[in-house]
Structures are given as structure tokens and as C-alpha cells.
Amino acid sequence: MRVRASGADRAFAIVVYGLVLAASALALFPMLYVLAISFSTETEYLTRGFYLLPRTFTLEGYLYLMSHPGFMSALRNSVTISVVGTLINIALTTLMAYGLSKTWLRGRKTLHFIVFFTLLFSGGIIPTYLVVQALGLLDSFWAVWLTSAVSAFNAIVMRSFFQAVPIELEESARIDGSGEWRLLFNIIVPLSFPAIATFTLFYLAQNWNTYFSAILYLDNDQMPLQVFLKQMLVEDDPSISNASSVAYHYTPAARMSAIVLTALPLLLIFPFLQRYFNQGVMLGAVKG
Amino acid sequence: MKKTALLMLAVCMAWGVTAGCANKNEDRSAASGSPAGSEGAQTEKVKIDMVIASWKGGGWPDNNHPIIQYIDKKFNVDLQIQWVPNANFVEKLNVIAASGKMPDVIRLDSPALFLKWANQGAFLDLQPYLSQYPTLQKIATPEEWALLNPQGKIYGIPIYETAQNTIYARADWLDKLGIPLPKDDEFTIGKFYEIAKAFATQDPDGNGKPDTYGFSALGNAMNLGMPELQAAFGIANGWKEEGGELIPAQTQSKEWKAYLGFMQKAYQEGVLDKDFVTNTNFNEKYAQGKIGFADMHYQFSRQTTQELQKIAPNAEFARLSPPIGEGGARGNSTPSSGKIKVVLGKDMDDQKRDRILELLDWWVSAEGEDVLKNGIEGVHYRKGADGAYEMTDALKAEGEGRQSLMWNWILRGNTNTFNIYKWSAPEWAQGMEQSIGDARKYPYRNVAEGYLPSSPAYAEKGSTLGDKFLKAVVEIIAGKKPVESIDDAIAEWKSGGGDQIVQEVNAAYKAHS
Amino acid sequence: MAKSYWKRAFPVYLMILPGLLFFIVFKYIPMVGISIAFMAYSPFDGIGGSEWVGLRHFHRLFAEGDFLTLLRNTLMLNLFDVLFFFPAPLLVALLLNEIKAKRFKAAVQTILYAPNFISWVVIVGITILLFATGSGGINQLLAGWGFERLELMTDPSYFRWVWLLQNVWQGAGWGAIIFLAALAAVDPLLYEAAAIDGANRWRMLWHIALPALRSVIVVLLVLRMGHVMDLGFEHIFLLQNSMNQGVSEVFETFVYKVGMTQGDYSYSTAVGLFKSIVGLIMVLFVNRLAKQTGQEGVF
Fold first, then answer.
1. pTM of the predicted model as reported, rounded to 2 decimal places
2. Domain ABC transmembrane type-1: where (chain C) (predicted)?
């Protein structure tokens, strides 16, 4: 702020930066532990307890995963599920939320309630599975894409974002003779970039975390990363040691590397999307 | 209003359609089964669907695994195994069952679910065919085949289980403290405590810090992960038989008081791991090298010893017999074979049934064991220059044991070397056989295993009642409550539904015997 | 008028249609499955063929000796969550909004949202590593300095706080994203005008940023109320142990133990339906409250 930097503002800034730095340190600290273990030998992990800087160094965990056919195919599956899934999500959600944001639309309240009601009540997995089966979608990514095509939560929140767009914009567009489609794509979407970027990220994360619907609907070779990861992290129940006696042992480095590699893609994507969070400035431009 | 009605209509119609479709699929799969007149001849390829729970590490990524290909070729089948992570197994199985496409082969680890579905007629009765498959029949005793089944029916193939775990001790620590390894007949529970206390207080790892414990325990299991200790105090391994009646451990006031007094003291004196409440397994606990007495099986002890030797070169877990309690009570927890079953879906045609039973008969033969456990020569192992077998690099990279999933996660015979491979050191095979033989000398059984699942009260309340009782046990051990308060927990267990469970379990017991 | 309405409205209905189809096919048709709650459901008989048992499963639920404990534990955890977790992302967003250095802001935001991708197994594992009574790093330090050990993982009085703080740690940065998006829509001219009027940063936050977030906050709060009986299963299950059972047993963990592991779908569906109805009542109540205080509400 070049206008005037008062003492109060400076104090305010110090408080803000202090708090943010403290919060970042707290967030970082356990993650550094995960990172440290991913480069450590098993012996160090077992003997040292909590630490942030490994004394040993090994890439064994990462190399193991990189050469693991299961990991690579899970990664491919996750990317497929996430990219296509998110495109479907964003297209359907944006259209629906925009439609529902029209205050003049008849039946809007009923439609909106139809969406909202699904947040509270659900039929459970068995009937959903039967629907998927009836549509012939089993063992196909479509089952995962379609059963989570729109999140009611995201649609409702996105609608409230669209409702914040000033009504004059719509009025002036209509006077220009633009139809609803042009209005949506030429004015509303560019204006709502922060919202759309946000929900893209939400959907990406949701798709990236696909676990249960993959287990329900997909085949062995279509399993995504989260299934792979969970199977590495799970500890078999000792009371059934007889049942699960394959004494298979993942090193801590391999387990933590899997966590790091699974989280990495979404951490890397964030800075790209973040650019769009600041596009709200355009609003002023349009108005002016 | 009109809209709602319309919607309901649409829903109902669509529902009818879905249900119809599900049935149609069923019909089709049944129809594609057996054309008449191809009896026994392996001319036609048969598709076999298995739905199997997978554990740590998960199943194989696809059904082109060399072992599956081997079986496909040998039996002219198309074997399709669907691995479902154990945590979601029951859900997935229910969903598949609801869809009308019951898989051909399922492994059921839950006796309650087995019983429920067997009662609903979901499984094929194997009784009429079993005698034609002698190898398969031999993997269990008639009692084991009969376990959990109604009279005259056999709805599942029993999975072999055996006593394996016993008490192990850090031999290198005993050495350092100048304590001789206790002999079988002098290893009393008093001796156990004396040594455990020495482990906790005399700095056996020599790091100058009081950071070792005599023994550890698990806070999430009724036997606290150390069943040998409860055995020594005469507490039943779940249930015991006395005078023709089945009696649950939860009512053994006197025994619990003695045991809890022992454990409370151990906790207070730092002999018992202070963190036992949050322990859910021993894997890392033992490998960290802070625990003197361990409850483990042979292979676990070898792996842990290897791991420990990276920290302490002399580390060694030595096998002991279970400690002797008052009146000579001692025991190693002994599970019953047959609690876990491999079942066949009832809707298959004769050809498929025969093919599957033929496959399973081979499966548990010596030849089948060789393939299913060790994998394929040239792919998973090979003969080295010195004539001894060794793992291939590919298997090493994937992990030893990953080739044995079908043997260990689906069905295995009653040999005791289930984790020993062709390339394992010969002393491992010997050690494993011997350790299992020794563990079986001191049977400590839950005699109600075959009857518990038929008690409705147990199904409804058993786990919550058990949790509450365990809570009291743990609180007493950690010194939050006096030992006598176990009587309140016993009273609560009985009045909360325990009495009813006792009655129902005994009724089932008497009906059977 | 009617004709021009349809001309205008038709494309809008068309936009809503694909989403609507999704909800009908994958959400409403399966709702037939709710009837499982009133049946002795068997997967082999199907929804059409299973026996109707009326309200038996609900009677069983309300007659459970622990019903009141379950209700109390569930509501208490949710209360903690709404009171302390719900505002956390808002606070993070407002703080981040005050940071002008772009690179720094991007870095900090990535760090703050990263924990969202660390699974509960790991988070709980690290907490135990640090706070286990005997071997936990923090407790060894405390003991070394002559303090009392903190039985964070086993003393039931800490359970809710541990659960809450782990939630904040994992979710605050991630949850802030949605508020930041709302803040991004604020016209920068407003800030400039306020600055010329001599408003300091604090006043701008109070009079510009917060009002811009009001409608999002209301929507999120109302939606949150619909899940007033839901808590993440996995997180609580991992934190649960024999000692804290009295405060940590909630409907999810209970249903898992008595229903899911045995495939008792009818009972777990009944418990789910009960939770949904409580959620519905809460939503209607809070939505009305919002409307009475002059907010738009969700519907």
C-alpha cells in the first residue's frame, strides 16, 4: 500500500506475517518428518524417534516405487481418473450452478432443493452399485467419473458465487441481445475465474483421492494411487496373523516415499492454479 | 407436488428397469455355462471368478501373473481373481452378492458372515463330492470340515491354522545380565517377572538410559497380544469348558484379579511398556530393541533379529516355552482350523464345479504347493551356480513372498512351512517346523469358536461388550482403577447381554454334542 | 410474456439438465435403498424380496445401552468442530489476504494446504510418536525437565482437543481456498477508496473483506449443519483406544463394529437414516435462523 503506511498498519502487518509464519512452521514440521523418513534407512527410523534431518541418506524408497509396476500403473490410472473426471465435474457443475443462480427462473427452488436434499440423504452403496451395473459401467472408468459427476456441495457453493455477480451485468448483456450461452461464456466465466479455479482444485483433489468407488467399481488393473498407498500403509491385524501370513515388509522409506509421491502432483499444480485466484481484478475492469 | 409425484414415478420405473437388468445378467451368465455332454472332458474353457481379500501390499496388479497363466493352461480355465483390500472386503462382497453375480470362489475370514450366508443358502454343499477329491479332503479333520456347518452339510473348505506364537526373549540381554536362558520346566510366571524386571531396570542395552521394558502389550485385543500370560493365570482364551458348560473368560473373577494384580505391578514398576494402550501391533516395537520378552512366531523372530542386528550385532531373540502359572497352567494360543473358509457359489453348473474342485485338489497337493508358494522356475526363482535355488532379481525387487499370495491368501494345505520357500535357508524350514511343533505342545484354545457365531446376542452386542470389558482391564493395568473393580466390569458384562450370550452359546454347544 | 420467458429460460434449463440427470440417476434412484432400513435385508433376496420389519432397527438403536453416550460424543465433537474448526480456514484466508508479496503468499499457501494430502494414518502416527506416554519425544523432554508426563493419547480428557487440533492442522489451509476465492472477487477499487478515506488495514478487513465473505460463510455453515451427526470415520477410529473409548465412540465407529464387519446392512442403514433426519432438522433450523437475521440462506 503506497498510499499511507501508518504505525497501526505496520503493527498490523507484523502481526499478520508473524502468524502466517508460525502457522507455516507448524504445517511444515510433520511434513518434513515424512520427507526425512523417506530418505532414511530403516535402522535410523527405528532408533531415532522424531527427527527432521536424516543422518543416513538413501533413495531406496523412491527407486523401489519408480520400478514398481503397480505404482506406475496406479499413477496412470489416477491421472486418467482425475483429468477426465475433473473436466466432467467442472463442466456440469458450472452449467448447473449458473442455471440455478438465475433468480427469475421458474422451478429454481425445487431444482435447488433436489440438489440440496442429496447432501443429507443417500441410498447407500448397494443400490448405487446396481444402477452402475444396469448401465453397464462396471470395470470402466466411467463408473467413477459418472457416479461423482457433480458434488452437491460444490454446486450449491458455486451458485452462491454466481449470485454475487452484479445483476446490472446481466441486464446490460441482455440489452446487447446476447443469449444466455454467450452471457455465460463471455462474461460470467471470465469474471468467476477465481471460483472456477477453486472448484477445479476441489474436484481435482476429490478425484485424486478416489478410493472407495474404485474398489467398488473397478478392476484390479484400474486401481488408482490411493488404493496402492493404503495397501502399503495398512498394518495387518495381529489377531489374524495366520490369515495374512505373507510376511511382506515395506521399509519406512518406501512407505513415506509413497506418501510424498502421491501428494506431490497436487502440490505442484497449485501454483499454476493460484494465478487465477487473483483474477478478481477484472471485475473492476469490466465495470469501469 | 405434481413434480414430486412424477419424480417418484420415474424413480420406481427406473428401479424396475435396474432390477430387471440385474436378473437378465444373471440368466445370461447361467446360460453360458454348460452345454450338455461335455462331462469331465477339459475341452471347454471355464471362467472362474474369485473374490479374495488382500492384505498388506495388496493383490497382484492384473490377472496375467505367471502363476495364473500356468493354472489357466494346466486346467483350461480363465481364472479371474479380484483382490479387494480387507478393510472393504465385506462391503464389496455384499454389493456383488446383491447384484446377483455371486463369485465362484470366495475366501471368508468372518465366521459370522459365513454362517449367515450359509443359512441363506448362498454356498454350494461340498459333502456329496468331497470323497472324489482325496487330497483336498485330507487337509483337515472331519471335525474341522464340520465346524460351523449344519449336520451333514459342508459349505466351505477349512483353512488350516496352527499355534505358532510363543514367548521369545532377548538372549543377548540375558547374556549381558548373566541370567541363564530359563529351561522349559523352570520358566514360571514368577521367573518371567524377575527376568522382565531385570530387563527393565538393569540397562541391558547398555546405553546408560532407563529406556528398556521387560515386555510390551497391545491395548486393542482382549489377550493384550500376550495370551501366554493370561494362560498362566488360568484365564480362558475366550471360552473354556468346565463340567459340560462353556464358560466365558469375562466371568472369571478370581483369575482376572490375580492376572491384573500382576500386570498392574508390572506397569507401575516400569516392567510393562508404558505405551501399551496405544500399541496396535508389535512390529516396530520389537525392532526398536527396547523390549526384552516378545510374543512372536518363528519367522517374525528371525526377521526382527536380522533387523536388530543392524543396531546391536549380538541381538538374538531366543524361543521359550510359555511361562508356567499356578497349578501348572501354561499355553500358546491355538486357533481352530475351519473358522476361516473357502466357499463356492451355489449357482454354478456341474462342469464348473468339477473343474474348480479338481483345481483345488491339485492346489493342496505337493505339486500345487510348489507352484503356488514358490512361483514359476525361471520367473520367480532359479537354480544358482552352486545348485541351490535363489530368487530372481525380479522377485527380489517385488519382494519375497509376493509370489505366494494364492497360497497364503486363498487356500493352503496343512503343511507348516507356509512361509518357507525353496530358496530359504534350510534351517528356517527346520526352525519353523520345530517351533510350531513345540507351540502345539501347550494348547490354549477357545472352545466356543464353533458356537459363538450362532448366538444372535453375540452378533449384536459381543463386540461392544468386549470393548467395555477391555476398557476396564486396561484402566486397571494402567493404575487408574483398583484391581477389585474388575467385578463391576464382570457384572456389567453379564447384565449388558453377557448372560444371554452364555445361554445361547451353551444351547448351541449342547445341540451340537 | 410467457413466450419470451421460455425463449430466455430454455437455454438455462438446458444448462441445468445434465447435472439434474446425474442427480436423478445416481442419487435419487438409489434412494430406494433407504427402505433397507425397514427390512431384514439379505443381498440374495434383494430389496424387492427381503422381509419388512418396520421400525425394529430403530428400536434396537434407541434401546442400545450406549445410545445416549453415542449421541453425546457425536454432538460434542461436532460442537467442537463448528466452534473451533469452522472459523480456522476463515482466519487463514483473512491472514493470507493481507499478504501482498505474491511469491511469499504463494509459497505460504502451498505449505498451509499441503497437510490436506497427508493421510490420517500418518498424522495419528506422528502424534503418537511425539506424545506417547513412555517413548514419545515430547514426553521424554517433559520428563527430562522434571515435569509430569502428558498422557495425550490415552487420557480421555484430551481426546477431543487432539482430534480437533489434528483437524485444524490438516484442513485449515485447504478450507481457506474457498474464502480466498470469495475475497478475490472483491473489487480492488473498494480498498483504494477506503485507503483514500484514511481507513487502516484493520478497518478494511472489518468493513470490506468480512462482509464480502458473509454469504459464503452462511452457505457453508448451513451445509455443515446437515452433517451434524457425521464425523470422519477413519480419523476417529485411528485415535480410538481402550482408555478414551468413553468419549471417542461415535455412531460411525459403533456402526462399523456392530454392523459393517458382519454385513448387517439394515442396521447400518437405519443408523444412517437417523443421522440424516437429525441433519435435516438442523439445516432447516439454521437456515431459518439465517433468514431471520437477514441473510439469504441456502434455500
1. 0.89
2. 71-286
